[in-house]
Specification:
The relative contact order is 0.22. The longest helix has 25 residues. The protein has one domain: Ribonuclease H-like superfamily/Ribonuclease H (Nucleotidyltransferase, domain 5, 2-Layer Sandwich), CATH 3.30.420. By secondary structure, it is an alpha/beta fold. Helix content is 46%, strand content 17%. The protein contains eight helices and five strands. The chain has a five-stranded mixed β-sheet with strand order 3-2-1-4-5.
Length: 197
């Protein structure tokens, strides 16, 4: 039986940190109780679903991975190429033979043309495999931003906002200037001439 491969991304809009793509390989009737659009779930619920997903990996019933692209590569290549590159890397790792999978992606995301695929608006709400892809990507990215990144750059408050453009984050950028993990292309668009590398 062909596998279902659910794909979604998180971190398209932040001013800092990576964009991350979650990819979940599962059977056609996969589901987890309580799973839904990650944006509608609290952090504790996302962590709980992530733990269930890890136990399913250990049991051999699903596989998943999270593939991230750095702020520097986002600045160099643009956000769309950063996301499509992460999708390509992830599929090459998890599902290298396109004949083995039906790929479902959230919104307008696309996989390489060699894969049989369907892009579904609100897929992260409607398709459990896409929902889980978003959840594992968000948990992984949030842990990275609140852990290593927050520790390395304590002046910016990354543990609270995970790199998104909150009032406090923008104030910290104005006070301290951008860090090496800020997306300079995003800062120039939002802040204009007030930001300098």
């Amino acid at each position: 039986m062909r596998s279902i491969v659910g794909i979604d991304e998180v971190g398209r809009g932040p001013l800092a940190g990576p964009v991350s793509v979650g990819i979940v390989v599962c059977k056609r009737h996969f589901s987890i109780e309580g799973i839904t659009d990650s944006k509608l779930m609290g952090e504790a619920d996302r962590e709980s679903v992530y733990a269930i997903a890890q136990s399913m990996v250990e049991a051999g019933t699903i596989t998943f991975g999270v593939y991230s692209t750095s702020a520097q590569d986002i600045d160099k290549d643009g956000i769309e190429r950063a996301i499509s590159g992460a999708i390509s890397r992830g599929l090459a790792s998890l599902m290298p033979d396109p004949k083995d999978a039906d790929v479902v992606l959230d919104g307008r995301l696309r996989a390489p043309s060699t894969y049989r695929q369907q892009s579904i608006i609100h897929g992260d709400l409607l398709v459990p495999a896409i929902s889980l892809a978003a959840i594992v990507a968000k948990v992984t990215r949030d842990r990275h931003m609140a852990g290593d990144v927050a520790s390395e750059y304590p002046a910016y408050g990354f543990a609270a906002h995970k790199g998104y453009g909150t009032k406090d984050h923008i104030a910290a950028i104005k006070q301290h200037g951008p860090s090496p993990i800020h997306r300079m292309s995003f800062l120039s668009n939002i802040m204009g001439a007030t930001i300098h590398a």
